[in-house]
């Protein structure tokens, strides 16, 4: 194997945003940086394409959607805005384990007069038995070790009646280079500069994700590769 094709080993180190006690101002600045990065990656339009397709299957019934580990709530807010613009009936909920993230998300929801409903909850330990048509997460899986990923996917499949979506980074040398340059170009947050490349090092390859999905009982998922070095795992219960 040539040196340029040697696989990048997985190396998950603690990220600043995972640590308790992060200054709220720095937390907010980091979330704003991530918002710009996600806009460039066009994560939201990719997710919305799947939600729109489901909503059009049953246009008279509201589509219920849950985001796990929502951070500042930007993705959920944008999805709700798109649904409103397209006149699609969607009820979007979002949760995060970090109360500070939910505080920021509630402020963002109020600023944009959004209908997103927020609550504090652990994605790996659901606090209730509610189910939703769609359960999704973005940029969360790379924060977890393999057994936790299997647990997460099991929880998502149990709570999703119609669709599970997982959007995250691909671990690769190209992805690392893009993360290093992109975080510095798109954000002035030192937290984003530090955590961005670490996130790629901690991410999984598509084949690893598919193996973890199989372990969680998600048979025959579809995995889409997207620019810039991201994947979207899609699974529908049969």
Write the layout of secondary structure elements.
Elements: H1 24-41, H2 43-57, E1 63-67, H3 74-85, E2 90-96, H4 99-111, E3 117-120, E4 132-138, H5 146-159, E5 160-169, H6 173-186, H7 190-202, H8 206-215, E6 222-226, E7 230-235
Parallel strand pairs: 1-2, 1-4, 2-3, 4-5
Antiparallel strand pairs: 5-7, 6-7
Helix pairs in contact: 2-3, 6-7
Describe this structure in words.
It is a single chain. The protein contains eight helices and seven strands; from the N terminus they run H-H-E-H-E-H-E-E-H-E-H-H-H-E-E. The protein is of the alpha/beta class and 238 residues long. The protein has one domain: 3-Layer(aba) Sandwich (Rossmann fold). A seven-stranded mixed β-sheet has the order 3-2-1-4-5-7-6, sandwiched between helices. Helix 2 packs across helix 3 and helix 6 runs antiparallel to helix 7. The chain is globular and about 45 Å long. It starts with 23 loop residues before the first helix and ends with a strand. The mean pLDDT is 91.
